[in-house]
Design brief:
Layout: H1 2-16, H2 20-44, H3 49-69, H4 75-78, H5 80-97, E1 99-101, E2 104-110, E3 113-115, H6 117-136, H7 143-161, H8 166-183, H9 187-207, H10 211-221, H11 230-243, H12 255-258, H13 270-302, H14 307-331, H15 349-369
Antiparallel strand pairs: 1-2, 2-3
């Protein structure tokens, strides 16, 4: 009885420490995503298969999130290398045994379920960089720390590029840049790195990029370059966004998504579906939920009691902000189409579970910073 009473007290303590504003923002985003996926499924007549799969992913993600939120996040620091190594092995394994989806060998497919290892790698890289920076960061970032932390990031980046998945590789790189800046990387080091990156891009353009990848970049620079090919998706997304008006055409009544003019409407271009069917009000609700979530993450980053905690929360905020900016930029023709979904909204179990797990770790940070959690 005493053990049961202790567990009950612990659970109640966790509930008192919950950031309910953060929970509310996540709930709104999940609800908007389900509504948009439901609308797309209606047009396809697939017996709401994607909605059912997304609900299963949400259930799995919430179960993992509850476990992580009630655990001691500080233990991740000791397991950082194990998580990082597991992520690397998964990326190597998917190159050898994975299934190609839309030209990228980045998935393990098991009958009706699938798993994208790079999503786990994002989580593992945030934990690994948080552990490294909390031990080695200085008031001014030295060249040694720059090289070592970049080395940690470049291994999964290169493995991801081999799939090839340029969108996820960019997210991993942007995660390192944002966390390195937070650690104190000097501007001149960044300029040198940017110059090297530009040179590498030039070499990749000439010798490594596939024709469709070059076409995506050219379409990004000039949307009229291939309006019936690579530029088609972006053109249809912009039309859908502009057609939404103030209140939208109504859920299930968007012409672009319902008449299948908008490809990948439940994943890459779900923002355009929301904009067309729910209008400016829906977009405002979506961006408001993201803004609330991002602000709460920044508040908790400022309250962090140690370096590892601060880097974890900053890593979570960076991952959210990077994928949000890239996805909406794709829909507006401001970024190349890279296959990056809208966090917590787009269809896709691997990404959804990754973000729920990441936010659960932040909730564990909040609980323990308020003194309500156990060891």
């Amino acid at each position: 009885m005493r053990a049961v009473f202790r567990r009950l007290c612990f659970r109640l303590g966790v509930l008192r420490g919950v950031d309910w504003l953060m929970i509310l923002s996540v709930f709104v985003l999940l609800l908007l995503g389900l509504a948009a996926i439901y609308s797309v499924d209606l047009s396809r007549g697939v017996d709401l298969l994607n909605v059912k799969k997304q609900l299963v992913a949400i259930a799995v993600g919430l179960a993992i999130a509850l476990f992580l939120a009630s655990s001691n996040y500080a233990l991740l620091r000791n397991d950082a290398f194990v998580l990082y190594l597991a992520g690397i092995l998964l990326l190597v394994g998917v190159l050898l045994f994975g299934t190609s989806v839309r030209g990228s060998r980045g998935w393990f497919v098991f009958d009706a379920a699938s798993f994208q290892p790079v999503e786990f790698m994002k989580f593992a890289l945030i934990v690994a960089l948080s552990s490294y920076f909390s031990r080695r960061a200085r008031p001014y970032f030295a060249l040694r720390e720059l090289a070592e932390s970049l080395g940690l990031a470049m291994i999964p980046i290169c493995l991801t590029l081999l799939q090839p998945d340029f969108g996820s590789a960019f997210v991993l790189l942007a995660l390192w840049i944002s966390m390195a800046f937070f650690a104190g990387m000097r501007t001149r080091f960044f300029l040198v790195f940017f110059g090297a990156l530009t040179g590498a891009f030039s070499i990749g353009w000439r010798f490594f990029f596939e024709a469709y990848q070059r076409a995506r970049i050219l379409t990004f620079l000039n949307p009229a370059f291939d309006p019936l090919g690579q530029g088609y998706n972006v053109s249809q997304a912009i039309i859908a966004i502009g057609a939404g008006g103030w209140l939208g055409r109504g859920l299930g009544f968007g012409s672009q998504s319902q008449l299948k003019f908008l490809p990948e409407s439940h994943t890459d271009f779900i923002f355009a579906v929301i904009a067309e069917e729910l209008g400016f009000f829906g977009v405002l609700l979506l961006l408001g939920a993201f803004a609330l979530l991002f602000v709460r993450l920044l508040v908790h980053a400022k309250k962090a009691r140690d370096g590892f905690t601060a880097f974890l929360v900053v890593g979570a905020a960076s991952a959210l902000c990077i994928q949000l900016a890239v996805n909406i930029g794709m829909n507006l023709g401001m970024f190349p189409v890279t296959g990056i979904g809208l966090p917590l909204v787009s269809y896709g179990g691997s990404s959804l579970i990754f973000f729920l797990a990441l936010l659960a770790v932040v909730q564990s940070v909040i609980t323990r910073s308020r003194g309500t959690g156990g060891a």
